[in-house]
Automatic annotation (TrEMBL):
Entry's localization field: Cytoplasm
Assembly notes: Heteromultimer composed of HisG and HisZ subunits.
Gene Ontology CC, one term: cytoplasm
Organism: Alkaliphilus serpentinus
Gene Ontology biological process terms, A to Z: histidyl-tRNA aminoacylation; L-histidine biosynthetic process
Lineage: Bacteria, Bacillati, Bacillota, Clostridia, Peptostreptococcales
Protein name in UniProt: ATP phosphoribosyltransferase regulatory subunit
Top-level taxon in the UniProt lineage: Bacteria
CDD domains assigned to the protein according to its UniProt record, in alphabetical order: HisRS-like_core
Protein encoded by which gene: hisZ
C-alpha cells in the first residue's frame, strides 16, 4: 500500500518558477539593503526557548515550535529574527562602532492556524539599527522600507506610522488591572469604539482624557487632519512629547520627498511591552494584509546586558511577492539558455564551451535527455549547439523561450 504523501499544515513546496521569482526578488531586495549600508548577518534556526520566554514576548506563547535536544535542553525553531540578532549584537558585536546597521533574510516558524491565512514557515527580510537614540534612526528605517519597495518597482503602497509613547502616556493616567488594560488596548487596535467606551466608563475619568482615548482608533489618515483634531484636545506632557517626536519624524520623511506614502494611525497598539516609540506598518493597495512592520525597541538590549537603542523592521517576503504579482508589471530577468548536444568523444570540447558561456552569464547544459524536442520545449531553451564527431560546434537558434 502506497503512503499518502501530504505536507504538514502551514508549509508549502516552492516549484521552479516560483522559486526563481522569489530568489530574484530577494536578491534585488538584499542588494538594495547592502547599497544602503546594511551588513547581512545570519542567526541559527534553533535557539534556546528561554530567549523568547520574556513576559513582553507573550505574543509568541504557544505559537512556537518546541523540541528537546539530547541534553534535555528546550529549544525552539526561530519565531522571530530581531531577538536573535539582538542577542548576537549584545554578545558578539558590543565592541563595534555605532551605529550598527544589519540586514537579514531568514525563515521563521510560528504555529499559526492556516485558516488565518498565515503560513507556519515563511521568509522574513529586514533591517536592525543599533546605537542611535534619535528620531533620525526611525526615519532611516522608514525611508529604507520605502526605497526598498520602490527598488522592486512597487508604487501603490502606504506606510502607516504610530507612536507607542502616546498610548503609554495616556494609560499611565488609568489605575487599572493588567487584564483591563489589555482589553482597552485590544479595543483600540480593533477600532471597536463601542467596546472601548464600555471599558472606559468603568473609570471616573476627566472628560478630556476619556474623549482622547475614545478618539485614538479614529486618529488615522492624513497627518495634517490628525494633528488638526489633536489641536482641540488637552494633552498630558507624555503625550505632547510623543507627538513632538512624531512630528520630527514626519518632517524629515517629507524632506526625503516621501510624504505621499505616509499616513498616521495613532491607534496602532503593536506590542506595547516590546516597542517603546515610533512604530510603523506597510500595506499594498489590493492586498489586505501587512507587507512590512517594525518600530523602536530600546528596552530589549538591556535583557542581554547592553544598554543600547534599537529600531528596525521586517518584510514578509511572500506578501511582498504577492504585491509585486498583483501590480503585474514585473519582468523576470532571463539568461540565455543553451543546450549542448555532444558526441561522447567531444565531451571535453563541450565542457570547455560550457565553462566559457557560463562565465558570460548564460545557462548552459550538456544534453542528457533522450527526447530532446520535448526537453527543449519545456526547459525553454534558446539555442541548441551540436558537436558531433564529424563537425565543429554549431549553434542552432530555437524558439523555445
Amino acid at each position: 500500500m502506497k503512503k499518502k504523501v501530504i505536507l504538514p499544515e502551514g508549509v508549502e513546496d516552492l516549484l521552479i518558477d516560483d522559486c526563481h521569482f522569489r530568489r530574484e526578488i530577494e536578491g534585488k531586495l538584499m542588494r538594495y539593503l547592502e547599497l544602503a549600508g546594511y551588513m547581512e548577518v545570519q542567526t541559527p534556526t534553533l535557539e534556546y526557548y528561554d530567549l523568547f520566554s520574556h513576559d513582553y514576548l507573550s505574543q509568541y506563547g504557544n505559537r512556537m515550535f518546541k523540541l528537546v535536544d539530547t541534553n534535555g535542553s528546550l529549544l525552539v525553531l526561530r519565531p522571530d529574527c530581531t531577538i536573535p540578532i539582538a542577542r548576537m549584537v549584545a554578545t558578539k558585536m558590543k565592541d563595534f562602532t555605532y551605529p550598527i546597521k544589519l540586514s537579514y533574510l531568514n525563515n521563521v516558524f510560528r504555529m499559526d492556524q492556516e485558516q488565518s491565512g498565515r503560513k507556519r514557515e515563511y521568509r522574513q527580510a529586514g533591517v536592525e539599527i543599533f546605537g542611535v537614540d534619535s528620531y533620525k534612526a526611525d526615519v532611516e528605517a522608514i525611508v529604507t522600507a520605502i526605497e526598498a519597495l520602490l527598488s522592486l518597482g512597487l508604487m501603490e503602497f502606504q506606510i502607516e506610522i504610530g507612536q507607542v509613547k502616546i498610548i503609554k502616556g495616556i494609560l499611565k493616567t488609568l489605575e487599572t488591572t493588567e487584564d483591563h488594560q489589555v482589553a482597552i488596548l485590544q479595543a483600540i487596535e480593533n477600532k471597536n469604539l463601542i467596546r472601548l467606551k464600555e471599558l472606559l466608563d468603568a473609570f471616573d475619568l476627566q472628560a478630556d482624557t476619556q474623549k482622547l482615548i475614545e478618539m485614538l482608533p479614529t486618529l488615522m489618515g492624513n497627518p495634517y487632519d490628525v494633528f488638526t483634531k489633536l489641536n482641540e484636545m488637552v494633552l498630558t506632557r507624555d503625550v505632547e512629547e510623543g507627538l513632538n517626536e512624531l512630528k520630527k519624524v514626519l518632517n524629515l520623511v517629507k524632506e526625503y520627498g516621501y510624504e505621499e506614502y505616509i499616513q498616521l494611525d495613532l491607534g496602532m497598539v503593536a506590542h506595547m511591552d516590546y516597542y517603546t516609540g515610533i512604530v510603523f506598518k506597510g500595506f499594498y493597495k489590493g492586498l489586505g494584509t501587512v507587507i512590512l512592520s517594525g518600530g523602536r525597541y530600546d528596552g530589549l538590549m538591556e535583557d542581554f546586558g547592553l544598554s543600547c537603542s534599537a529600531t528596525g523592521f521586517a518584510f514578509v517576503v511572500n506578501k511582498l511577492i504577492k504585491a509585486i504579482k498583483i501590480q503585474g508589471e514585473y519582468t523576470l530577468s532571463k539568461n540565455k539558455h543553451i543546450l549542448i548536444v555532444a558526441a561522447d568523444s567531444k565531451y571535453n570540447k563541450a565542457s570547455a564551451i560550457a565553462k566559457k558561456d557560463r562565465s558570460e552569464g548564460n545557462i548552459v547544459e550538456i544534453a542528457l535527455a533522450e527526447d530532446l524536442d520535448n526537453y527543449i520545449k519545456h526547459r525553454r531553451v534558446d539555442e541548441v549547439m551540436v558537436i558531433s564527431n564529424c563537425s565543429e560546434a554549431g549553434g542552432v537558434g530555437y524558439g523555445g523561450s
